[in-house]
């Protein structure tokens, strides 16, 4: 709950964005409070009208690539009521899920799990608002506060004040420069908006459609398979720069880089060594595809050689050099990287499975440019600020270069949220009759995960 003076209510913590990362934070802070220890009360601002995780990619035939045990809380506290297992129990599906003999739920089910957890914090979330600016309000000599401005769907501006903030915005769609001028053309869509923007094409005769997917990673392959099922007569081209679709390396020893303690190892390295580590393990996460999905696509292509009917084509070693709108569609100039030749092809729709950008230097922080030191993040995910800057700003999911490949993934949700929650709690004002800060730190010691680098 907000506190402070009547004319300027002050929130303990405002979380910007309410996806899985800040949802895990809400659960972690709730766990501290449930143990009868002082914890700041967090409120969240989310631009979506309701909770949904990757709404545009909730494909009916896509499974998670991460075990359900890496949910919002299990790796930190498997007894929590917020585990995926308890979700299944509450929904009456636990036995049926076990009978599937799989660690990997569908993406639709995992989104439902996240939504189930999020509804338990509805009273703490302001949906339908987008944060546009954060700056410092020094007020009338009282301790400086963060002033957080957001805008709702009607264009109204709302200003709130907070002692601390946690930014967890997720990635922004990465649009290749060749498509930049066509951002508003409805015939071009990023994978993040795929389901919404492909729907209008379903009313057309599929045999007349020509569809292109750009990219060589998991999302590109999933969309290609979905298009094949959705438009069985359409011509579908998957264009990518590599020689072949590459399988993701999810073998056990390699997967240990996603363990929480590997974050400590990466952060302790010099910058050059960190870059080497990221490059060495790129095959776990970037421009790679689940092996089972590769095999499904290969089976489709093989069956086409049997029937002689070619609808789906994988086009390796291709690069889009130009894109232009026309009344009949989008014309792509495509270069063959093997032969050096090029051709122009018209498509009714182009889907960009080109990934996301995660830049800690977000425009909303423009008002604090002079207070931020090098836009670097400390080990506890706190943004490094000037010495006289007292509010704390934490960042989730934008620290891959310093914390490792797991930072943008689900693998560290539970432990990262706990690190941030305990860091926030260390300076939380204790309510009456609550334990002192020393007793709080002693109580949390059992759950300490080697908080370092402050």
UniProtKB/TrEMBL annotation:
Cofactor(s), names only, from the UniProt record: FAD
Domain of life: Bacteria
Annotated keywords: FAD, Flavoprotein, NADP, Oxidoreductase
Pathway in which the depicted protein is active: Siderophore biosynthesis
Matching InterPro entries: FAD/NAD-bd_sf, Lys/Orn_oxygenase
Keyword flag NADP: yes
SUPFAM superfamilies tied to this protein: FAD/NAD(P)-binding domain
Signal peptide: none
Family of this protein: Belongs to the lysine N(6)-hydroxylase/L-ornithine N(5)-oxygenase family.
The protein's name in its UniProt record: Lysine N(6)-hydroxylase/L-ornithine N(5)-oxygenase family protein
Organism expressing this protein natively: Plastoroseomonas hellenica
